Amino acid sequence: MASSATPSTPAYSGYVAAREKLAHRFRAAGVLDVVGEGRISFLQGQLTQEMTGLAVGECRPAAGLTSKGKLLFVARVVGLEDRVRLVVPASIRRLVLEHLQKYAVFTKVGIEDPSEEFVRVVLYGPEASRLRLPVDLDRLPADREIAGEVLAPSGRRAELEALLLSAGSAEVPEETAEVLRVEAGRPRFGSDMDSTNLPDEVGLGDAISTTKGCYVGQEVVARLRTYGRVNRRLVRFRFPGRPIEPGTPLRRPDEEKPGKVEAGRVTSSAVSPQSGAIGLGYAFRDVSDGDRLVSTVRADDAAIVSDLAPA
What is the pLDDT of residues 147-161, one digit of tens each? Predict the structure, then answer.
């Protein structure tokens, strides 16, 4: 059953402000700095994104792949005066650090991890563009439900909290942030994508350059785009009844042997004040937009497939 909560209840604290006004959320930062004269050429061979011409202050989406073309990590790459900064999910920063250090051996680059020195501030709402923030902070661009982000020294958190409070910004708890994320169809590393996924399954087209030279995993990406297509894709789900638990396999309602052929899988679910019970997950190639799938656990739990807009 759908939740009876409304945008004004504690379960949705900050929801209206995040959609209509101004809201924010503080979160742990995953920050890795690549330093040294060979930093651009090094990252050119490691990341899916074009690194040449990266300007100071510019931010580009990117990913790191295994030699088999599977995702290792996603990142937002920021050009700085004397380094290139990778902003990665805090939960996998050590994995990314170890991966880059392995490849950096015998190169003219160093990999630093100043994550503990920073805090990441997520901004929501149309009024975020008018927020006056200190000019010396790193700014990250909008991404679906996120109106922008600020990467600030941890010691300046109190200053930013006071600034946001004076601007009338509402704080967004983790539960509300998850609802907003699922509504927007933005996948999260570790939930909706991981090392089992190809980047094209997740819709990471804006993070992949089709013209740059070699990088780890490029041959698989190029071959797939030239000669074939992925077998599954990230989609939205609308649950007519109650939310289906993440990790639940889905099947077609008319499948003769229920549970034998997986047609999809739920990876995230939430109850939205605007849309009701919704989720994210994967649908296989022969599943079309608008198709109805059912849970392999409870046949009366259904999911309606809705394709994500192109990235």
Answer: 999 999 999 999 999
